[in-house]
Amino acid sequence: MRRLPIRTALVSVFDKTGVVELGQALTGHGVRILSTGGTARALSEAGVTIDTVESVTGQAEIFAGRVKTLHPKIHAALLARRDVPEDLELLKQDGIEPIDLVVVNLYPFEQTIEAHPDDLAAAIEKIDIGGPTMIRSAAKNHRDVVVIADPSDYEALIKELEAGNGTVSESFAAAMAVKAFQATSSYDAAIQLHFQQAYGTEKLPPRYSVGGPRIQPLRYGENPHQQAAFYGYGRKWGLTALTVHQGKELSYNNLLDLDGAMRAILEFGVERPAAVVVKHTNPCGVALGDSLVDAYRRARDVDPVSAFGGIIALNRPLDLATAEEIASTFVECIICPAVEPAAAERLAKKKNVRVATVDPWPEGMREQLEVRSVAGGLLIQEADRETADEAEWKVVSRREPTDRERDALRFAWKVVRHVKSNAIVFTSDTQALGIGAGQMSRVDASRIAVIKAGQAGHDLNGSVLASDAFFPFRDGVDAAAEAGATAIIQPGGSIRDEEVIAAADEHGMAMIFTGRRHFKH
After folding, report:
1. Helix (H) / strand (E) containing 282
2. In order of start, what are the domains of the chain with their CATH numbers?
3. What is the pLDDT of residues 245-259, one digit of tens each?
4. 500 φ, ψ to 5°?
5. 280 catalytic, yes or no?
């Protein structure tokens, strides 16, 4: 296999991790090192001999370092093809020595916007220009030039140089070029997303870049034969801001369930203790309580069979009483704003239970788009963040809902939007009682919700029902009335709305149309 000799390297990094050790290794192989600014100082102070980039270009840094390596002599040295005589002759005529290795990492744009999300001037100053340009030049010419854009690859580079007596393999150079383009693509995507949010440009532009750093490789995907990893993009929020305090590594399925649990619990703010239990991305229990342990107990008891091995979301810091109750059964994960020391000590005895916090706890969904893959492309939509705007609700039945029913309908409407379509939810004003999720017909979702309630011993007499979309036929209303529901909330919009309303009136039920559906596919 062809190997690339490394005679001259350009080293210019923001993150100085490991750069002195790398410089020492390069010097040991007789490599000339060109460097700039703080990197040059760090190497020189460690006794590594360097030449400044300025000594090559004849041009001092200008604009407070904005222009350092943007010079024809640098990019000619990177882009010259070693097997093209005309390229080499031009280098010789201009007295330019080829550069065989570029070690560059980029200004911390993402860290800057994370720390100062509203400081656009600071963000702009952390948009690296020279770094990505050198990375792209070197990666384009990877048959002759090696590019290292990640400090974690220094060790592999040193081993390559040692094994090849100052040379690296062509396959290593190609692999590093792939990583280099991944780095610049992700970097540009973060900038694009931030500018799009800052300047209020169209949410769904003609081109949309999705990219970001790999947060962690996962053991596998939905099933053991599928590879998987977790990536972030844009500012850290939600699952990318998780701190895992104990337990096994989070799996692909854990993360999907945690996402569903967090989105559902955010519906209830922090005013009153609330708990959500999720299984296979669907809420199987939701409740409010007088205390956190009361809310959890009531959420679990909505469907205790399904709650076994579930994901728990809490809207308050996890206390000892709630930890004791959770520890009494098997759960996969807990997500909450914080964990009190006594609760942490209690759960430490359950070593396989994953305990995660998000700080600061988000009080509502951040403005965002949802991205999903389909064969051959991506689907992108605005997140369904609607809060309950009751000004748009319309009572369509002859009977107005009572105050108690209206409270229950409000609660049910918050729950049903997080259940996979077709979705039917029976609730009281503080607890889900029966949930029918992901069915092909709405009446079957109703039947399943009734069955689930019966299995858990919940009385549906006096309950209310929420449907994520309109009832296409009156049979769903008839089934709800037969189960004991006294009021229904649904979007409306069916060609048979009059029949559906008439069915509600026949049963003496109150019915509200919200005018907005909540499909969740």
Report:
1. strand 282-288
2. 3-199 (3.40.50.1380), 237-358 (3.40.140.20), 393-513 (3.40.140.20)
3. 999 889 999 999 999
4. -65, -45
5. yes
